[in-house]
Amino acid sequence: xxxKKVYVLSGIFLVLVIVALIFxxxxxxxxxxxxxxxxxxxxVGQAGLINLIASCEDSDxxxxxxxxxxxxxxxxxxxxxxxxxxxxxxxxxIEVRCNGDRLNGAKYxxxxxxxxxxxxxxxxxxPLCIDSDGGSDYYVKGETIGMIGGEILxxxxxxxxxxxxxxxxxxxxxxxxxxxxxxxxxxxxxxxxVEVEQECVDTDGGSDYYVKGETTGIIGGEILxxxxxxxxxxxxxxxxxxxxxxxxEVVIKPEGxxxxxxxxxxx
Length: 267
Prior knowledge:
This protein is mainly beta. 12% of the residues lie in helices and 47% in strands. The protein has a four-stranded antiparallel sheet with strand order 1-7-6-5. A three-stranded antiparallel sheet has the order 2-3-4, with no helix packed on it. Strands 10-11-12 form a three-stranded antiparallel sheet, with no helix packed on it.
């Protein structure tokens, strides 16, 4: 075989390989995307209109499920028509695109990626449980919407048991709760812990049983005020400070004394 025939055959073989690669790429290149081609005339909604398209422009440049796109068709007479990506139902997306000056469409199931179809885009499905404070934030009052016992319910964080906190949060789609013990130097107010800036003050300076005192500090997560008082036929309830908290003790009356108006006095 002479060299000329070899060159001709080699050229023909190369052309066939190129054509085959183009065919395979167009037919199978997007196979892993698992979409279904749609007839272009069905997308435009008018038979024969496809043959009159002069140019095609796609705002999202192809099959991009997570981006809303609009195809603008310009016809031979200069008129234009816009075709948008759109949802057939909660999971099915119709994605439009240009193939040169021609219009193509594809039907894609967003749920294959764990998404839903919303306004012409595959988007992540919002969780059914939402906590407004972002989780277990004990210093911000939160409202949690989610599932309890198969029902969608709403719970707010709340103060409980003399200053402790019931905190609601999400566990997947479900609402869970935990009881948090009141930290030192804090109160619980309207479903959140609040740091106490006010000091505990005792007007009689501490455990002075012979001077009536008034003590302002924290008891059970609340800022309260207590006065020393007589109790149990002459004994004394004496209030004093323990850090920011109010402490109390019952003092038995000494011999020869009685209790009057929150203090011991000689009989």
